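Example 226.
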Amino acid sequence: MHVALIMAHPDDADIYCGGSVAAWRLMGAEVTILIATDGSKGGNFNPEDLAKLRSEEAIAAARVLDANLIQLNFPDGELCQSEEFSVKLTTEVLRLKPNLLVAHAPNDYHVDHRAVSSASLIAASFRAPVLWVDPMMGNDFLPNYYVDISQFQDLKEQAILCHKSQGPGHFVEMSRVQGRFRSAQCGRLNGFAEAFRHDPIHPFADIRSLIPPPPQLKPIVVNSST
Ligand SMILES: [Zn+2]
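Predicted structure in complex with zinc ion:
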């Protein structure tokens, strides 16, 4: 199995689904992270220097998660104006032949993320299903898949901390809050989970075999004497 994550910025894969990358790897899946932009607008640095720095940070983080990395280096903040991006992404998907695409949700808060979402659907076409990642703090996102990342939260934090130029402590803290909340939604208060959404579409109505295990749900015990 091959999972392709299509993410807008160099730290997105680690922040939004770093734990699930580790879970897919444990399932034996190959994971390829495609980063659409060079991240050159993510801070008060010289854009060229920042792009170089963020590229090195992404390489280090992908190594932590044992994932392949492809950096497409489109200009940060300008994805929605780029017709070339959609063509390039489709070419990459045709080449990689992933069984599952993971991308930002269509209603994500960030314009670059929404551009990734739309281009991912075009690139996937009938070739593979698309799974949406939980946006920052989960605003207006109704998940229908959860992945138990309790055993991978430490690794996820190590990957996030590789992005030193982005003040990563803040993102580690947010990932803890959101991970706890998503796990608690499944009935496990002391775990961590990442949430996803798949909108069933022909011919991908059932994608359960492609998703790592959810938090263990508490079974309902039926008392036969009542
Ligand atoms: Zn981003």
